[in-house]
Amino acid sequence: MSDPASAPIATADPVAIEAYFTRADGQFLFARWGRPIAPVVFGVEDTTVSILKGAIEAVVALAGHQMAETDPELGANLMIFFIRDWDELVETPNLDRLIPDLASTVDRLKRADANQYRSFRFDTDGGIKAAFVFIRMDMAMSAVPAETIALSQVVQTILLWSDTAFLGASPLVVLENGAAVLRPEIADVIRAGYDPILPVAASDAAFALRLSARIAAGAGQGH
User: Fold this and answer.
1) Cα–Cα distance between 125 and 137 in angstroms, integer?
2) Which of 131, 158, 185 is the last residue of a domain?
3) Domain encompassing residue 173
4) 94-132 residue pLDDT tens
5) Residue 218 and residue 197: Cα distance in Å, rounded?
6) CB 120 within 8 A of CB 98
């Protein structure tokens, strides 16, 4: 199986698309949001909240999905936390209700010196029900513009990508003026993934062929 980050790919290449959703253990798993996204952001100033919500709106519009002020079941279903240290998670009241095995997860993140973590919840049909995003502002992350962090995190939350999908390359590309934009092939996969003709979730690798066909059809229509 090819690595999508190893080289530029034809946007409709089903082998590369399959790799985006094939996890390190070999399991293929695709899912998109099955309900409107109702976001809330913690730990940053209002200006950064506005940047994040702008990025969410842009990616949701790209997908052809919807946003909402609140989720009728959960209130907020996309929670984004900015922290300085992973231990803050253990100290946050009731967070252990959202993140199973919170203490062991924090230990694992500390050992890996990780600066980001995403956890998802799913509806009965497999669609994404909620996502919890944690960003530790270490030296490396603090050097990244807020707009780039926002777009990168939202892109990695709009679909259930593989845990290895972006290890070799970011889903973004930095332009000469320093602005970061979404790589065209990633944008194509997001648009295809939200085609209403497709199911909200799939565990059969043959689903990559259906995504490829939707991307090819979109290109043929000049989208």
Assistant:
1) 35
2) 158
3) 1-32+167-223
4) 888 888 889 999 999 999 999 999 999 999 999 999 999
5) 13
6) no
> Which two structure tokens, joined as six digits, stand for 175?
């332009």
Same structural domain, 57 and 149:
yes
11 and 54 both lie in a single domain: no
Pair (48, 127) in one structural domain: yes
Q: Are residues 114 and 172 in the same domain?
A: no
Does one domain contain both 25 and 39? no
Task: Kindly state the percentage of the chain with pLDDT values over 90.
Answer: 79
Give pLDDT, residue 219. Answer: 54
Q: Extract long-range pairs of 178-184: CB within 8 Å, 24+ residues apart.
A: 178/145, 179/147, 180/145, 180/147, 180/148, 180/151, 180/152, 181/151, 182/59, 182/62, 182/151, 182/155, 184/11
pLDDT tens by residue, 146-202: 999 999 999 999 999 999 999 888 899 988 887 889 999 999 999 999 999 999 999
DSSP class of residue 148 equals H
Beta-carbon contacts of residue 86 (< 8 Å; ≥ 6 apart) = 106, 109, 110, 114, 136
Instruction: State residue 130's pLDDT score.
Output: 97
For residues 185 and 151, membership in a common domain is answered with: no
Q: Name the domain count of the chain.
A: 2
